[in-house]
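SUBJECT: protein chain
CONTENTS: sequence, structure tokens:
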Amino acid sequence: MKYIIGIFLSLFVVQISIAQPTLHLKNKKKTVAKKDLVLKDVQTEFAKTISADDMKKHLTILASDEYEGRETGAKGNKMAAEYLAEEFKKMGLPGVGKKNTYFQSVAFNKTQWEDCVMYINGEKFKHLWEFLSFPNMNQNVDQLNKNEVIFLGYGIDDPKYSDYAGKDVKGKVIMVYKDEPMKADGTSRITGTEKKSDWSKDLSKKLTTAKKYGVAHIMIIENELQAQLSKSRSYLVGPSINLGDGNEMSDIYANNSFISTNVAKAIMGKRKKKVFKKRDKARATGKSKAVKLKTTFEIRQKKDMSNILGDNVMGFIEGSDPVLKDEVIIITAHYDHLGKKGDEIYNGADDNGSGTSTVLDVAEAFAKAKAAGKAPKRSVMVMLVTGEEKGLLGSQYYTEYPIFPLENTVANINVDMVGRVDEKYKDNPGYVYVIGSDRLSTELHEINENANKKYTNLTLDYTYNAEDDPNRYYYRSDHYNFAVKGIPAVFYFNGTHEDYHRTTDTVEKINFEKMEKIGKLVFHTAWELADRKDKIKVDVVGKN
């Protein structure tokens, strides 16, 4: 009997020992599931503090007439910067800027033409009508007079094709075509394919080459001058604002202008057919011939320059992990806009008061998590940047002079125009265009997608993320300055509308409920980036 009982007890012990690992595994799964639930609840808890009402409060102030359109360097821009800093202070965030303030001061130069006029054979041609000249790309010239203009093909100096070879153009005025020589079969003489070279895409190459050869002034024939004016209006109409003291670009370029076909014909005069013949020969043979045009050319280019200061405004939430807190996620939105032109105010409610107000509320959610002792592992910096409308200047300055090392910057999340609904989604405002998320890191793309599925269920539209997108939005907002430094970046955007860059971009047209949802997506994506075990990898090459 003892023997039987002994066997029974032995078997019972074995069964218990077999069952224990299974029980432990179930408990472990429950613990992991509970931990995930807790993390999710933490995110959800603080995401709930992001509200349409808060955003409306901020935007109503920032896009008011009192702030005069927040133009970089203007009074309203400074007022906006002070308002944003005060909000960060109310959140209890530390100052990480200069002298423990919330500001990173950015030095700009303000440049505009005092006098810019051209004469061809005594006939006056008006700036912004028949020619364009960018003040920051030219040096002051009181008066340049020449009795000859040299037609120099395309103004290219390349091993496969050169307009300069064997020609002396030092101190001369030259006129060139904007494009490059293409063969009859549609291929470029430089690339050997249908794809054009950088000589067509980057006209600064022609300007630096002209400088190298000592050209006094280069004119580039622009067939669509008014379209070019429309694209570059903010640089040409009124002051142009740039980083530095204002001489950086003008020192590396020959003085230059973009001229209409009317000006080009006036310069060619009776030798127009000869110019066309030489142009066509260059296309057919790859050999460039200059044409001397006996034309009187006069130009005055006198600039008015002054130096101004702007500010990037920073709110910093330190991470909870003693090691990982040295890594930072940067969330950006530009707070500048076009300012005031005469009596008209460009309030910029959507562009980009909407992004600024959204990001400000996201900062508050992170600040509340920090105050409750529940901050994510890595640090988060919310940065409202200036100078975007002047050429992404505030973010460019930060990436050149970062507060935190770029090698420790995990990702950039950029929010620019998220308060309106475009024509495509007029019946479905629950959407956002996502740009750049997969350009450098597949993990960033997946994190954003998963955050949306878990929490916000917006329609994520990648139309403008296409590499052949003609709008080129990927290159047109502040995230791009991070991307070119190899930092993964994602850009949230609602598309343009009829009030874009007009005085009618006002608060009453904003969809704050839409902004709230996008703000929550920004928060959840940033939280996932900040709280995950491993830093996301840069695993995509050649798409930035």
Observations:
- Residues 1-26, 28-33 have pLDDT under 50 and may be disordered.
